[in-house]
Structure prediction request, 379 residues.
Amino acid sequence: MSGNERKYIDEAFESNWIAPLGPNIDAFESELASYVSIKGAAAVSSGTAAIHLALELLGVGKGDLVCCPSFTFIASANPISYLGAEPIFIDSEPDTWNMSPEALEQAMMECAAEGKLPKAVIVVHLYGCIAKMTEIMSVCNRYDVPVIEDAAESLGSTYNGIQSGTFGHFGIFSFNGNKIITTSGGGMLVSNDLEAINKARFLATQARDAAQHYQHSVMGYNYRLSNILAGIGRAQLEVLDERVEARRNVFLRYVNAFRHYDNVQFMPEQIGSRSNRWLTTFTITEEDSAWKIQELLNELSANNIEARPLWKPLHQQPLFEGTRFYPHPTLEAASICEKLFQSGICLPSGSNLGIEDQMRVIEVVERVIAETVQVTIQR
Ligand SMILES: *Cc1c(COP(=O)(O)O)cnc(C)c1O
Prediction:
C-alpha cells in the first residue's frame, strides 16, 4: 500500500457507501480511463470477470472460436470456456515472447478456409512486455475479427506512447494482489465503445432491467467492484508511475549484474515499446537449459528466495488437451512457447524490492549461472 488508501476507505465509511457502487467506483473508473486515455471503463471484481464480459459483449457463445496465446496464465483462456466457446491456441514469437502474428495469420487462414472465423482474438502483454500490436491488429483488421487485450500484467506499459489495453476493441486490467497495483482483488474493462461499457455495467449487476420491480430479460453476473476496494484502487493509481519506475530499475539492476553472461537472455522489449517490467524474466540459452533452470529454482528456494518458472503453455495443460494449436514457423522441433517454458525463470521483481535483497538474489543466481558455464566448458 502507498499511504493514501486509508483516506479513500475512510471516505467510503463516512459516507456509508459500503456497496458495489458509490463515488470511489465512479472516480476510479474515470481516473483509470483518463490515465490510459480511453473513453470508458467499468470496474469489476477481477480481470477474469472483465475478459468474460468482453467476450460476451462481442457475442461469443456456444461453439464459437476464440484465438488466444498459449503462453499465458490460465485466466486469459478460462472465460472462453465459460461461454461454451472453443479456444484456438497461438504460439509465441521470439522477439516479444508474445502472440506470433505469423501463427495467428495461419490460424485465420485455415479458419477462413473452413468457413468459420474466430469471433474474437485475445492478445496478452506478458510480464508487461507489449506484443507485436501493429502486426496483430493488421491481421485481425484484415479478417475483421475484434481484439481483446489482456493487459492484466501490463498496466502502465506503452507502445509508441500509447497505453497497453487501448489498441483493441476492449482492454482488461487486473488489480489482483500480485499485479503492479492492487485492490486485493479487482479488475477493469476499458473501451472507446461507451455503449458496450454501459452494457458491461448492466451485465455485471445481474442485468437488471430499468423497472421499479426486479425485472430481468437476459442473464447477468455479480461482477461489480466494491466501493471500498475502488478506494484502494484510486490511491494505488496515484503511485503507478513510481511503481513502473521501480520495476524498471529492478530489471536494469538484473541486466547489469548478468550482462557478462551471454547464456542469459532477458525478455526482449520491442522497439517503440516501454514495458512496466512487471516481472523480470530471462531464459538460459543453452542445450540443457531446463536442468539449469531447475537448479536455479532449487538454489533460490534453498536460500529462501521465491522464484517461478515461466507460464506453462496452455495447449500443454491437461484441461485443454486436444485443443488446436498453431506454432510459430521455426526450424526447431519444439514450439517457441514450449522452449520458453523449459528454459525461463521469473525473478523476484516487486516494486518494493530493496537493493540489498536484490543483491542477495543476484549473488545466488550468479553462482548457479557461473557454475553452469564452467560445466559447459569442461565438456
Ligand atoms: C492476473 C491475470 C489475469 C486475471 O486477473 P484476475 O484479476 O486475477 O482475475 C488474466 N490474465 C493474465 C495474463 C494475468 O496475469
